[in-house]
């Protein structure tokens, strides 16, 4: 039977998060794996942040944005994984309605800032490679902070819009979420009232939040590619491309998993594939970002080594 929504609003006071696996025997293994993943992600991203702060060679706009991105990655994983670990530890899988909406708000806030920071990093590469003579004036100290502030403002507006919109829906049962954190697609499935306007809002705002940054990144790298191809020496082309390859890898991972997750609202049942995409969004991407940015960058590697060994940078 389909339960009709009540007029007085939300009747559900808590949701049940099924988590990654429903077999109790596997819970200790999941706890250990995700605790290690959380510690690795936080440690890796904070190491990148420390390297950016202590290494004079990394006091550039690109690494200023990378330091901010590392902070956002720590925030994103901290919004979802610790609460999941606590539920596994106490073997209680309920989450209060208010906590669920709070988790949704902060996840979309931090992921939204990530989205715009990646766009700012693409703009930085465009200026550095295509317009090097005016780079220092067009990407000065003030501009960098304005871009970060705008990222926060746009992401806050997006997160608040979706949180307020989801709070207008009626939840009268069932209350079981086949996931390990609260997110829009899963909550849409549980609503007793129509979610058509919410889904249109998600597509509309998503076009602005994701489509516009993707278009700007695409346009930036078309100009970057054209400029790199005009470089006569193979060594020069290789050096120019190496400064962009890490960023492009992160962009592909971030937008690829994000689009798959939010463009499938017509699905009537959420499966393990959706949980896998959730793991990529909340764990794998933030954990791989420090590795991607340090793997082919000797300056970052040297700075990380100094952070880990406690050595001061050479004067």
From TrEMBL:
Alphabetical list of SUPFAM superfamilies matching this protein: Family A G protein-coupled receptor-like
Topology of this chain in the membrane:
Multi-pass membrane protein
Q: Which Pfam families match?
A: 7tm_4
A Gene Ontology molecular function term for this protein is: olfactory receptor activity
Q: What is this protein called?
A: Olfactory receptor
Q: Which InterPro entries match?
A: GPCR_Rhodpsn, GPCR_Rhodpsn_7TM, Olfact_rcpt
- Which organism's genome codes for this protein? Mus musculus
Residues in domain G-protein coupled receptors family 1 profile?
44-293
Output a single Gene Ontology CC term carried by this record: plasma membrane
Kindly state a single biological-process term from the GO annotations of this entry: sensory perception of smell
- Sorted UniProt keywords: Cell membrane, G-protein coupled receptor, Glycoprotein, Membrane, Olfaction, Receptor, Sensory transduction, Transducer, Transmembrane, Transmembrane helix
Question: What family does this chain come from, according to its entry?
Answer: Belongs to the G-protein coupled receptor 1 family.
Gene encoding this chain? Or3a1c
Highest taxon of source:
Eukaryota
**Mostly located where?**
membrane
């Amino acid at each position: 039977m389909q339960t009709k929504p009540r007029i007085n609003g939300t009747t559900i006071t808590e949701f049940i998060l099924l988590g990654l696996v429903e077999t109790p025997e596997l819970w200790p293994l999941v706890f250990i794996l995700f605790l290690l993943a959380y510690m690795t992600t936080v440690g890796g991203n904070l190491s990148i942040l420390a390297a950016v702060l202590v290494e004079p060679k990394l006091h550039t706009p690109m690494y200023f944005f990378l330091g901010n991105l590392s902070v956002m990655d720590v925030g994103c994983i901290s919004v979802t994984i610790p609460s999941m670990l606590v539920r596994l530890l106490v073997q209680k899988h309920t989450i209060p309605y208010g906590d669920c909406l709070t988790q949704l708000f902060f996840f979309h806030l931090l992921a939204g800032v990530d989205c715009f920071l990646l766009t700012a990093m693409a703009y930085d590469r465009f200026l550095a490679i295509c317009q090097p003579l005016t780079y220092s004036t067009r990407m000065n100290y003030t501009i960098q902070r304005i871009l970060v502030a705008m990222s926060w403002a746009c992401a806050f507006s997006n997160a608040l819009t979706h949180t307020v919109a989801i709070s207008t829906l009626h939840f009268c049962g069932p209350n079981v979420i086949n996931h390990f954190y609260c997110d829009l697609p899963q909550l849409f499935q549980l609503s007793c009232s129509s979610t058509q306007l919410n889904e249109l809002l998600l597509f509309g705002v998503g076009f602005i939040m994701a489509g516009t940054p993707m278009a700007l990144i695409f346009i930036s790298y078309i100009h970057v590619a054209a400029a790199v191809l005009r470089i006569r020496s193979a060594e020069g082309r290789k050096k120019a491309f190496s400064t962009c390859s890490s960023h492009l890898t992160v962009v592909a991972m971030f937008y690829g998993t994000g689009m798959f997750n939010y463009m499938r609202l017509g699905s009537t049942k959420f499966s393990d594939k959706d949980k896998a995409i959730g793991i990529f969004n909340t764990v794998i991407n933030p954990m791989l970002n420090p590795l991607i940015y340090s793997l082919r960058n000797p300056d970052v590697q040297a700075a990380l080594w100094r952070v880990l060994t406690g050595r001061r940078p050479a004067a």
